Amino acid sequence: MITLTAARPRRGENIVPMINVAFLLLIFFLMTAVIAPSDPVRVTPPEAGGDVEAGEDVRIFVEADGTIWQGGSPVAVLDDVAGATVLLGADRSLDGARLAQILTELRRAGARDVKLVVAPS
Known about the structure:
The protein is of the alpha/beta class. It contains two helices and seven strands; from the N terminus they run H-E-E-E-E-E-H-E-E. A five-stranded mixed sheet has the order 4-3-2-5-6, with helices on one face. A hairpin with a 5-residue loop joins strand 2 and strand 3. The termini are far apart. The model has no long low-confidence stretch (mean pLDDT 83).
């Protein structure tokens, strides 16, 4: 004797494992992300063409009024640049004579290479 049973409605797909994987990936990316410190002052860099990016050893920022920042605080004398590559972020409204003076100071302090930070045009 053959008995017929009613077909049970099919259940939807279980998405819990996919949600678990998504959360695990989110946690992984949050734990391995590198958070860079913010710049001590906001400067508006000049514009330039090209795609050259600089490697950095020492970061120095110069405000529009000529104040020099190194290591997160204003400095009067540039130090710790001997033999280093200097990444120089200068405000676009900085006087050219003051920029030339800072570049001369960096050369005297022994900077190996100075790279000026610019905004893409």
